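User: Okay, second chain of the day. Same drill as before: sequence in, structure tokens out.
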Amino acid sequence: MKLKGKVAIISGGAGGIGKETSFLFASEGAHVVVADYNQRLAEVTAKEIDGIGFGVDVSQRDQVDWMVNNVIDRFGKIDILVNNAGITMDSTLVKMTQEQWNQVISINQTGVFHCTQAVVPHMIQEGYGRVINTSSIVGRMGNFGQTNYAATKAAVIAMTQTWAKELGRKGINVNAVAPGFIMSPMTEKMPEKILNGMKEKVSLQRLGTTRDIANTYLFLATDDSSYINGAVIPVDGGLSI
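Assistant: Same drill. Structure tokens below.
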């Protein structure tokens, strides 16, 4: 087991990529903390993997601090943080509302800051940590109708590389994953014509799976990646080349 005895917090851990990661990390021996906006789903997911579930809005710092304090009280440490929570509220620039902008920024960007700043002091104390941030290919390529989302994912890349410089000397590796087109409950609702068009853009001619992303998270969470710091790993089937 690659994560035996490790304590891992996974934000957005009750659905899609986050849920897949929660199950994978648990199967590798980690004590998994499932943090999700939906408290019921967080608790259900945690129960399935013998973990702990918290209903947490990562945009609210007091909720994040409350969760982190509870985890420290129970386990005495936090080894891994996966900043996976994120939302989309798409619209073209001229139609985007202030609320759409604010909501996406608060979860996808400020939420990553909140969770990392709350967890890192405990990692520094232990002299060890793995912080894994979820970016996206649109953070480098942009995407029609996603001004807010693309901005947050570019910010995640910048934060990742900054924190890698600051925290590497403390024994903490900070890396990011940039998924491409991934099959999820959201994409499954798209018309088949749209899905086929997405596949045609990918050199591997398929959409990614949640397991593809979870496997990359696992690699970055283990000592197999101990000399990787500040990287942004595209998991997109060759879409961005």
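Residues 7-235 form a domain with the Rossmann fold fold (CATH 3.40.50.720).

User: Thanks, on to the next one.
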